[in-house]
């Protein structure tokens, strides 16, 4: 084969000649969009029935199937948001902590599709609270309280979480100070000193000063 013929047969990176088109993963392109949407709506109802009967694992599977065949466009954003939120609710009802991160991700994606999905925000707040992500949970509860203070549990959560956050932060601070003290003792030990030789005293202007007390040795 001469070089001219080789150049004629060559396919550039931009060309689609001879390249099999790969369909988008969330769409079944063998089904017209309208039929895909109709089927997705039917599956949502089936998922709701499974959820209502307490079969949460089956509900998760059905909601997932509904998402897989749902067309992705502006018209289906709310529908997909509901499916994601419902799947998260199923994870929440199962009560298996290992699934909570996936459920939070579902709620987050659902809120990206429809920021007005109140149930998705409520569920994300509850999930984050169970995961002890108290700051994230409180942020959602505050947004919900601003929107509608009558949503069950929202006002109570806004009161309940701040002390938990403060308690957690205090615990983290004490743990950090303990580790710093251990490190300081390791450094000072060769000199016959310890962190007990140094006393932190609060200043009226703010901050702390350090006072050396030579009498204490390790």
Automatic annotation (TrEMBL):
Keyword field: Coiled coil
SMART domains, alphabetized: TPR
Region: Disordered, residue numbers: 1-39
Domain of life: Eukaryota
InterPro entries per the UniProt record, alphabetical: TPR-like_helical_dom_sf, TPR_domain_protein, TPR_rpt
Record field: transmembrane: none
Keyword Coiled coil: yes
Coiled-coil segments: 117-144
Protein name: Uncharacterized protein
Lineage: Eukaryota, Metazoa, Ecdysozoa, Tardigrada, Eutardigrada
Gene symbol of the encoding locus: RvY_06365-1
């Amino acid at each position: 084969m001469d070089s001219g013929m080789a150049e004629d047969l060559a396919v550039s990176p931009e060309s689609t000649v001879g390249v099999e088109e790969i369909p988008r993963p969330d769409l079944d392109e063998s089904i017209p969009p309208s039929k895909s949407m109709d089927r997705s709506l039917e599956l949502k109802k089936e998922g709701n029935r499974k959820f209502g009967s307490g079969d949460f694992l089956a509900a998760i599977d059905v909601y997932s199937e509904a998402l897989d065949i749902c067309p992705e466009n502006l018209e289906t954003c709310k529908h997909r948001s509901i499916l994601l939120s419902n799947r998260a609710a199923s994870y929440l009802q199962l009560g298996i902590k290992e699934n909570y991160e996936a459920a939070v991700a579902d709620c987050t994606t659902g809120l990206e599709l429809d920021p007005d999905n109140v149930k998705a925000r409520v569920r994300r707040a509850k999930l984050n609270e169970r995961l002890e992500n108290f700051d994230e949970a409180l942020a959602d509860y505050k947004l919900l309280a601003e929107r509608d203070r009558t949503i069950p549990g929202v006002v109570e959560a806004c009161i309940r979480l701040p002390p938990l956050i403060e308690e957690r932060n205090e615990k983290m601070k004490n743990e950090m100070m303990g580790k710093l003290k251990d490190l300081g003792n390791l450094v000072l030990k060769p000199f016959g000193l310890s962190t007990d030789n140094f006393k932190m005293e609060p200043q009226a202007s703010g901050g702390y000063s350090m006072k050396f007390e030579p009498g204490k040795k390790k």
